[in-house]
């Protein structure tokens, strides 16, 4: 079950497992989790793999490297881009923007962090929701938001809409470049995101 506010998160293991699937970063983790889900056969026994991540915004969100004995249930998200037929997995964030964040933009956060920016102050990677901030800022407001973003102080703002959703879709006035877990997937006019709760276990 996705975590609820105030509930403890994670299960302490007796020993650090040695058979984890180790992933370098957010994009690698999302791809490995998605591949494992697609290979799973309904009705067939066997334990699901455990995952570990070495770097990235998911790791920062959960507090950095731990003892290696804490098992955390995690969400994975399914992203659809425009008319592209195949979903793309995401564990940390989807960012749709132009250069310098001019005009329309959207930040869909499953993790709390985008590099040094605290763009999802309420985001949690196992609450079954993504935190979405969308809108458009002028030059002065973009400069101020950049200054405040490392502490999450860019919100609230009258020109930014904030939502917490289990699924979210949006069509932009013109195509924006879309970054999923830090990787560019080209320019697209629309995106949709669907959260799959409790999709995998991360060991930290």
Q: Termini separation (Å)?
A: 19 Å
Main β-sheet: number of strands, strand sense, barrel status?
Answer: 11 strands, mixed
The helix content, as a percent range, equals: 10-25%
- Stretches with pLDDT under 50, minimum 5 residues: none
| SSE pattern, N- to C-terminal | EEHEHEEEEEHEEE
User: What coarse outline follows from CA principal-axis ratios?
Assistant: globular
What is the number of independent domains?
A: 2
What CATH architecture of the largest domain would you give? Answer: Sandwich
| Tally of DSSP helical segments | 3
CATH first level of the largest domain: Mainly Beta
Integer average pLDDT: 88
Report the strand count.
11
CATH topology of the largest domain: Tumour Suppressor Smad4
Approximate strand percentage: 35-45%
